[in-house]
Amino acid sequence: MSPRLCLVLSALFGMLAVTLGAFGAHGLSNNTGDGYLEKKYADMEPKMIAGQSVPASYKYLQDFKTGVDYHMAHALALGLTGVVMLRQRSRWLSASSVCFLGGVFFFSGSLYLLVIAGPKWLGVPWGAIAPIGGTLLILGWLFLAIGAWSTMKNA
After folding, report:
1. By CB neighbour count within 10 A (0-12 exposed, 13-18 middle, 19+ buried), where does 25 fall?
2. How many angstroms separate the CA atoms of 6 and 1, rounded?
3. CB crowding 74-94: b at 16 or more within 10 Å, else e
4. Number of domains forming the structure of the chain
5. DSSP letters spanning the chain
């Protein structure tokens, strides 16, 4: 991936993360208890978070927020990778950027679908896809470290 594409995708991912964060905060739930998530998960059993029983709608809102947080953090990581690539191109850095891209898609994307569409939609258990994305995000950081180390030996 080129530095230019990394930086453009980073900016677009950041914009999308902010947009989805606003949607999550204002469109999925509200303080009156009759928002989308409250209605969608009204009949679902309470969920456990940190040993506390909470309404399913609250748990899924937290899942959505986790997706947004990781989305934004890795939009910035993709931008950082693009900036490092401006100094010197590297297969490790390119692999890092691809992993960040795929990681956001699979990790955050699966959480967004889990929350909005439900735990299983079109026969796909969305929560089971998140670990694929998480693994890609971890590899992205590892490849960024290797790429930075190998391209900046003399710095």
Report:
1. middle
2. 7
3. bbebbbbbbebbeeeebebbb
4. 1
5. --HHHHHHHHHHHHHHHHHHHHHIIIII--TTS-SHHHHHTTTSPPEEETTEEE-HHHHHHHHHHHHHHHHHHHHHHHHHHHHHHHH---HHHHHHHHHHHHHIIIIIHHHHHHHHH-SEETTEEGGGTHHHHHHHHHHHHHHHHHHHHHH-TT-
Instruction: Give the pLDDT band (50/70/90) at residue 33.
Output: low
Are 74 and 140 a contacting pair, CB within 8 Å?
yes
Instruction: Write out pLDDT tens, residues 95-152.
Output: 999 999 999 999 999 999 999 988 776 677 777 889 999 999 999 999 999 999 988 7
Note the pLDDT tens digit of each residue in 49-84: 999 999 999 999 999 999 999 999 999 999 999 999
Q: At what angle do helices 130-151 and 56-87 cross, to 10 degrees?
A: 20
Q: What is the pTM of this model?
A: 0.90
Segments forming the whole domain that contains residue 9: 3-151
Per-residue CA distances from 60 to 4, 65, 77, 110 (Å): 35, 9, 26, 12
